[in-house]
Structure formats: C-alpha cells, structure tokens
Write a structure and sequence with these properties.
The protein has 238 residues and is an alpha/beta fold. Helices cover 36% and strands 26% of the residues. Bound molecules: adenosine-5'-triphosphate.
Length: 238
Amino acid sequence: SGGDVLLKVTGLESSYGRIKALKGLNLEIHRGETVALVGANGAGKTTFLRTLSGVQPMGAGQIWFDGEDISKVRADQRMRRGICQSPEGRQVFGPLAIEDNLLLGAYTQPKQNVPEDLEKVYAMFPILKEKRKLPAGTLSGGQQQMLAIGRALMGRPKLLLLDEPSMGLAPLLVQEVFNVVKALKAQGMTIILAEQNAFAALALADRGYVIETGEITLTGTGQDLIHNEKVRAAYLGM
Ligand code: ATP
C-alpha cells in the first residue's frame, strides 16, 4: 500500500524475428493497484506479460521492479522476486495431480512456506482441495483456470500477471473468475489483468491501458476508459 511505484516499464520492445510485437511500450503500476490491459487479439498483451516475467526476450527498453532494474534478470529470478504469471490458456499439467501442479508454483519458495500457502489456496478454491489427488486434466476449464491462478499464488506474488483468465469459459464461470480477481484485489494484491473481456476487466480495475499493435494508445482510470468513446466503439461494442 502507499501507492508507490512497483513496476515501471520504459521503451519496451520485443520481436518475433522481424515482427515487432512491442514497439516502445511505457507503463507504470503502483503497489496495490489492479490494472487492466485491454486490446484486440494480437495487440501484444501476451507478449508484454511474457516479457515482464522474462520468458519472452526483450529488445530495447527497461523494466524496473521493486526499485531495481530487472531488464537483464532471468525468468526464474524474476519469479523469485515476486513476478508470478498465470499464463494464457492456463497451461496446467494434465497428467499431474492438482496438488503437484500447485507445488510447481512454489519451487522458488522456502519449504517452510509451502504448507501454509497450500492451505490459503485451498481456502480460496475448495474444489481444488477436494480433488487434490486427481490429475489436473480431470478438472473443467473453469477449475483449471482456478488452478492456474492458485499455482501463481504459490509463488507469493508481489505482482500477479493474469493473462486472459476468462478465455474460453462459459458466462457463469467468467463471473467466478472475475470474483476471484476482485477478492485478490481486496487483499491488496498488485495485479495486471490482460483481457479481451474489456468491460469486465475495466469495471473492476483501478486503471487501464489500451494496447494497439504493440503500443499504449490510451490510459486512464477503469471508469474513464469505460466511458471513453474510442474504447466504447472499439472494445465494448457500443
Ligand atoms: P491474444 O489475445 O491473441 O494473445 P495478444 O494481444 O496477447 O493477443 P500477442 O499474442 O502478444 O497479442 O501477439 C502480438 C503480435 O506478435 C501479433 O502480431 C502476433 O501475430 C505476433 N506473435 C505472437 N506470438 C508469435 C510467435 N510465436 N511467432 C511470431 N509472431 C508472434
């Protein structure tokens, strides 16, 4: 809390061969904020989050996190510092037990933290506790999304990256996922939420950024953006 800067990104570029997916992106996240990243399919949301967690290489630019320049810090070290990601498409390990999937998210943690953190995740997602010995592949899409979020929480995030958590879910489950994000926000977690479901994301976010072809084109409070005519036309179908 206090509203100090947790993440500052300047001039961030990232490419796939000759395709520039991020073209000099600038953004700032304060501690305790929930920030929505909205944009069309292919705008660069996933590339941005993967560049932050370090699994996608960056070209030019700088990433400052928690007061340090982490531009050259490896992905596993970024996770250790508290950048934890729930990836697009969930990517849980189907044949592995649900509990073992959660433990994968804790591999950077000291052993003594793990039982306590598991219980916190189970308290948040009782269905995962009930089914903890079963292969993750037996879970429904919505439950797998909860598992992916739970796995990220096992890393004790200072910054939680959620990539399209509502993707492919039925409307009722979409609401459940957004309720989870709301609960994490209420706990004071700092969150970046990349979503094509722009209305729901902006409605719960403190602030939002609109990303178009690898650049930030608009920013404001969630409410500002919901009432912005360009946003309404392009992303809210109004
Ligand atoms: P989505 O919601 O579909 O994930 P996005 O906003 O997350 O969209 P990205 O997936 O980051 O967008 O894609 C940004 C740009 O990079 C797009 O032009 C896309 O075609 C390109 N791109 C993404 N992944 C690759 C890849 N593995 N190889 C080549 N180009 C890629």
